[in-house]
UniProtKB/TrEMBL annotation:
<protein>
    <recommendedName>
        <fullName>Gram-positive cocci surface proteins LPxTG domain-containing protein</fullName>
    </recommendedName>
</protein>
<feature type="region of interest" description="Disordered">
    <location>
        <begin position="199"/>
        <end position="230"/>
    </location>
</feature>
<feature type="region of interest" description="Disordered">
    <location>
        <begin position="164"/>
        <end position="184"/>
    </location>
</feature>
<dbReference type="Pfam" id="PF08341">
    <property type="entry name" value="TED"/>
</dbReference>
<feature type="signal peptide">
    <location>
        <begin position="1"/>
        <end position="36"/>
    </location>
</feature>
<dbReference type="InterPro" id="IPR023849">
    <property type="entry name" value="TQXA_dom"/>
</dbReference>
<keyword id="KW-0134">Cell wall</keyword>
<feature type="domain" description="Gram-positive cocci surface proteins LPxTG">
    <location>
        <begin position="383"/>
        <end position="417"/>
    </location>
</feature>
<feature type="compositionally biased region" description="Low complexity">
    <location>
        <begin position="336"/>
        <end position="353"/>
    </location>
</feature>
<dbReference type="InterPro" id="IPR013552">
    <property type="entry name" value="Thioester_dom"/>
</dbReference>
<feature type="transmembrane region" description="Helical">
    <location>
        <begin position="389"/>
        <end position="411"/>
    </location>
</feature>
<dbReference type="InterPro" id="IPR019931">
    <property type="entry name" value="LPXTG_anchor"/>
</dbReference>
<keyword id="KW-0964">Secreted</keyword>
<keyword id="KW-0572">Peptidoglycan-anchor</keyword>
<keyword id="KW-0472">Membrane</keyword>
<keyword id="KW-0812">Transmembrane</keyword>
<keyword id="KW-0732">Signal</keyword>
Amino acid sequence: MAALSPRSGRRARAALALVAASLTAAGTITPGTAAAAQQNIARVDDNGIAGEVVHFAGEGDTAASTTLFNLRLDGDSAVGAYCVDISSEVDHEAAYIEAAWEDAPEEGGFLEYAAEVNWVLRHSYPSLGLDRLRTRAGIPSLDTEQAIAGTQAAIWHFSNGVSLPDPGGEGPAASLEPGERRGRANSAEVRALYSYLTETAESTSEPAPSLTVEPERVSGTGASPLGPLTVRTTSAEPVQVSVSGAESAVIVDGSGTPVSVVRAGQEFFLRLEDEVPAGAAKVYAQAAKAKVEAGRLFIGKDGVSTQPLVAAERGTVAATASATVTWDLASASPSVAASPSAEAATESEAGPSRPEAATTPGPEPSSSSPVVIANDKQPERDLPLTGTWVGAIIIAGVTLVTAGVAALVLARRRRRN
């Protein structure tokens, strides 16, 4: 039996549950503090908005379903998000964290055209409202499903090298009126939006993270204030700062005055009392209302394997970031600076540097290495639910229930006679 997509699997489980419940009713079956440390965890809701199925150039009918995912940043804030790797599945149970594009899983292979993907996200739906997008792209009949499909297809063009067929290569679809579609061809609106986005895209820089503390690691001697540290944030309000792991430590500004809040770009230090033993502490920054910009990448926390998602609109989130501060009184140097080992650790954690963005459209797919489409993006073909094995299970269950009820009625009549 062919493997089921997650979507089909959920329907199958629901169908089986319905049958089991029905048979039970008929009397034929008898039923038998680490969390606090996790900051800025995002998750993918199940209520994404489906777009049209897109069909790719090449032999056969290679197609994929499209979705504008609902990425929940926290309990009060969510943003629309697209996937950037057609070959990966979304794990709805996975914890996501905001990350730089250079921190994306290496197997994704989509860093080369990240700058073009960022342009698409900032110039298409939903970052631009549907009416504005219709005007800019010159597609007055564009609807929401088509906007999602055209945008996702353009992203995959740059991130995975897939392309939609040229209008002349779609056969009868080349002459379709707006809103029309024959067979498995892309709708005229999806094709037009895809062409507009891929042909107009420019190299666009990655948006700033919602909150960071720089550098991530600082070391020095306990005899002097340790730092400087700097908060970078999209929040317009001051950011709260605190320290954990050193009871006698105090956060101070450049003049040595204790502070509990700092503004973006302001330098601050960690001051220790005299004769404190060598050790380490965490410095935390918390922003109540930081902005997550369109183009920010979200990946599985701690290397969890799941589809990388990219924010498609601006959102607001309560964010937390931290830096590690270490000190050693045995050090002979009174200066305070990031140690070579700390710099090496930071570089190692950050991953390889991002290559220069290309200014040309993404590569065309190779016939020798066809694109691999993840199971959760495999489109459900034109078979209705009752035409699948899931439908057959439901029908069989209803038939058994009916038979069971009939048998009970017949048995009661015999006892009465």
